[in-house]
Amino acid sequence: MGKCGVGWILLATIFFLDPVCGLQWENKPADVVYACAGSKVTLPWRFEVTKNEAVTGVSWIHDGALSSSLMASMVHDHFLATGDYSARVRHVQNGGLVVKDLVAEDTGNYSIEVSVVAEGLFRSYQQTVTVQVGDGPMVKGDLRADQDPQARWDEASQEWNIRLTCGSFTFLGPPPVDVVWTTPDGDSKASSGYETGHFYLSLLTPVRGGNYTCSIPEIRFPDICNRQHGGHFMALSASVGVDEVKARLSLLEANQEKLLADNAHLQDRLRNVEQAHASDMQNASQYFRANQEKLLADNAHLHDRLRNVEQAHASDMQNASQYFRGMVTSLGDQIDDMKILYIKTADLEHKIAALSGPCNPRSHVEIDDAWRSVDQGSGSNCDKNLNPGWYRFFLHGENAVIPTTCVPRSHCGTVATMWLDLQGQSLPDVGDEVTARACAHWTSGCCRTESPITVRNCGLYFVYKLNPAPNCNQAFCVEPRK
Question: Considering the entire predicted model, what is its pTM?
Fold first, then answer.
């Protein structure tokens, strides 16, 4: 699709609007179209308007070298050709135009302008294409093949090469054909490129000497308007002889010149750097001398200030020593009082924690099973019939806790040992509780089965909210509280 070119005409009030892309170009010719004298050319413009637009007119215009002419127009669905074009133009599709019986003077720019109206606003859309009409081969004079007098630097390969040219062609845009080069060995090569009317071939190093011929295949003659005259086509080939020794000398000279130029450039840069360095060193020397003098003066000033500070500090330290000795004595007495208060407070917190919620002896069940010790071996004990609720553990009458690390299987008087996995948490502070999981260590890992478990810190001991073991033989392990 082409971009919208929009011209605005306001019927009543002039105001500003953002351009809205309405009409769309569904098809358009290439930027440059080639045709031969006596033939015809088709400019296949095709467009589509939006549902709220109505086409009011279409115009086709030719801008030649000397004049500009209206070729045809479309008004109320009627196609009207003008002047000399009335017998030579024909309308196709909704914007296409065919021009026949072309002559060299028909070369130029061809434009289509479509006018539409939408919501009281007139808009115009335009497209332009260049048509080149060839009256005979599109070559200036005879086709020539030449060798550039000097080697050329190729940025892509970063090398010097010998370039052969073939021309001169009159194409206004990209060439419709390519020339074929025949090397001294009889090989065929395509052109390396095209610029300013000449196809060119870059010879790779080392250069092969001999005759190089450029030619256009006969099958492509109609594309460049090369017609038969008296049963024969105009010859479109040319040769150039390449002296291998001279070519290689040219490459050496070019490389030498480039090296000399690079060397001169480097010498200039070196001189500039040396001059800049000398200037910088001189400035730096002056700067450091000035700074050194300032540093010496500052150093003497700081020595004087330091002596004053040391004298004042010695006096302050003597006074502070006497003051802090008195403070230490007083603080020691306060610390002793705080220790007593802390011990009493901690004891009170433990007692409160031991009497609240599940810490209350009436709210949990006490278990003292010697076989649950992590030091016991295997057994058949099982907690599958354990009633859900809060429990406190003992070992031989002393406080015990469920281990928080994996216990080897076949211990604690059972097969699958159950332990407390805090899952990255810490044991709760006094009066707090955390929820984690109870894991059973069996044959396939430390947590073959799991069940929820809640642990509460009652100060002097812990209580656990347990659920029955998922399977047998699985039982909770305990160890003395450290």
Answer: 0.51
